[in-house]
Specification:
The chain contains 8 helices and 4 strands, in the order H-H-H-H-H-H-E-E-H-H-E-E. By secondary structure, the chain is an alpha+beta fold.
């Protein structure tokens, strides 16, 4: 009985085949969806928050690993192991960067000041390839205004987002 069930799942998932059929890819997609949900729960919510390039890279690699397992006749066990190792590495680096400022700088980077006291920092804007128009878009989306006089400071955060500090009204 168990042997028949194993053969059924082997056939359903295309475990021992060189050429996957459509139904096998569909079955793999279902299995991988639930495995990916489990891995994301293990990794923690910060990975989905995409706080830094480090998080983006992890999501990209995880997607590539799991996506290939859906359409290519490769080992599902090997795929799940590789994805699990990636998730554990993500958690370890997250822990390490929490505990160590230098590691945080190395893996996640740092913010760059683009405006200081309502004056553009042209050098930092050039280094980061951020235009005045990019800052105006952030101003409109963050402060719901296009009045540059409301800006005290602006930063390119390590997540790639431009954050704006509004002038205080006294």
């Amino acid at each position: 009985m168990i042997t028949r069930m194993l053969l059924f799942f082997d056939n359903l998932l295309g475990v021992n085949t060189e050429d996957l059929q459509s139904y096998q890819m569909a079955a793999r997609a279902i299995v991988i969806f639930f495995v990916a949900m489990f891995f994301i729960r293990i990794s923690g919510l910060r990975m989905l928050g995409k706080q830094s390039t480090f998080d983006h890279l992890t999501i990209l690699i995880l997607g590539a690993i799991l996506g290939r397992a859906i359409v290519a006749p490769q080992s599902l066990a090997g795929t799940f192991l590789a994805a699990f190792i990636l998730i554990m590495l993500h958690r370890f680096v997250g822990w390490l960067t929490y505990k160590n400022t230098f590691a945080g700088f190395m893996f996640k980077g740092t913010s760059v000041q683009l405006i200081k006291d309502n004056v553009y920092n042209e050098l930092n804007m050039s280094k980061t390839q951020i235009t005045k128009n990019d800052i105006m878009i952030a101003l409109r989306s963050e402060l719901n205004t296009d009045d540059f006089n409301e800006v005290k400071d602006a930063y390119l955060e390590r997540s790639g987002k431009i954050s704006i500090v509004k002038k205080s009204i006294l």
